[in-house]
């Protein structure tokens, strides 16, 4: 899958949420996410512009906890966060992290903690994130099967961004992990 995504800081998340709801988005989930990124001793994964992480997710309404392992490839353009994404559920995030460490991968510092409200309209997912140590962000994303669908998905995201009063030049291409590391 290819994740067609943009991210931008939003100091007024409640106002953005209201605009999304007025555009026909519906809130689907309210979750807390805890991300631990991994790399080898030479930092090969980060050096290539890729990411390997274990994410533990808690549903704020039900208390249910799940875990996923993700790989994100290099960004495919110089304006957005578009990249290949592979994700699978894992039974136990703690065991998954232990397996990666036993295989020679080390967790990156710091860990990323966020509260996320996920809204959806058609194929567009809007995530309003409050990242511990960084503040509020909006992510808009569409998952597509192949490269040929990427441009059309980006046009849909840009149209939504415009309806919210933003432009592509307002977005950032830096991961939350990198932002936190640069802040330290």
Structure characterization notes:
- The protein has one domain: Hypothetical Protein Pfu-838710-001, CATH 2.40.320.10.
- It has an 8-stranded antiparallel β-barrel, surrounded by 4 helices.
- It is globular, with a radius of gyration of 16 Å.
- It has 184 residues and is an alpha+beta fold.
- Helix content is 25%, strand content 43%.
Shape: globular
| Estimated structural class | alpha+beta
Q: What is the makeup of the main sheet?
A: 8 strands, antiparallel, barrel
Strand order of the largest sheet: 1-5-4-3-2-7-8-9
Topology readout:
Blueprint: E1 2-9, H1 13-22, E2 26-39, H2 44-47, E3 51-59, E4 65-75, E5 83-90, H3 93-102, E6 106-107, E7 112-121, E8 124-131, E9 135-144, H4 150-163, H5 176-183
Antiparallel strand pairs: 1-5, 1-9, 2-3, 2-6, 2-7, 3-4, 4-5, 7-8, 8-9
Which terms would index this structure?
single chain, 184 residues, alpha+beta, Hypothetical Protein Pfu-838710-001, eight-stranded antiparallel barrel, 5 helices, 9 strands, 43% strand
In short:
This protein is of the alpha+beta class. It contains five helices and nine strands.
